[in-house]
Amino acid sequence: MSDLIDLYSKNERCYAVTIELCTMCNWKCLHCYIPKHNHAGLSIDRVKSLLNELREFGVYEVNFTGGEIFTRSDCMEIVQYARGLGFAVGILSNASLLNDEIIGKLKKCHIESYDCTIFSMDSKIHDAFVQVDGALNQALRNIIKLKNAGIDVTMKC
């Protein structure tokens, strides 16, 4: 992989971009830089147009972040579209809103990476930090499901 990044660098090309799909989030993390969690983001047509432009530009990897990207009902359509264009896709998500259907679709998409943040393995600490009761247990259940589906997960602590 470093050879590919070196090639992009040598040719002064953009290797990866990160797109903030929305500011909406079901967690209210105490440290969050987003002042209001109420913006749904760009329309799906605009996101697809942007992805087309990035493909034409030669970008290799697209990472999707938010807020929490799975607050968007069209999130999987966006991920599938990006994969259909040949992008390596990374997801940054709190893993709390996943379900078996979404995880199955993520598996079929062969996403490059799934990153999530866990603030503490003590649910009292984690849940207090994100201000949602049961948040840690829900996220951990879904992380296990992702791993069982063969999806690499990076937990940032």
What does this 3D model show about the protein?
By secondary structure, this protein is α/β, with parallel strands linked by helices. The protein contains six helices and five strands; from the N terminus they run αβαβαβαβααβ. Helix 2 links the parallel strand 1 and strand 2. Helix 3 packs parallel to helix 4. 26% of the residues are buried. The mean pLDDT is 92.
At a glance:
With 157 residues, the chain is of the alpha/beta class. 41% of the residues lie in helices and 15% in strands.
List the helices and strands and how they pair.
Blueprint: H1 2-10, E1 16-20, H2 44-57, E2 61-65, H3 75-84, E3 88-92, H4 100-109, E4 113-117, H5 123-130, H6 135-148, E5 153-156
Order of helices and strands: HEHEHEHEHHE
- Tally of DSSP β-strands: 5
Binned, the helix content reads: 40-55%
Unreliable segments of 5+ consecutive residues: none
Give a short account of the largest sheet: 5 strands, parallel
Rg, rounded, reads: 16 Å
Strand content: 15-25%
Shape: globular
Which features would summarize this protein structure in a list?
single chain; alpha/beta; 157 residues; 6 helices
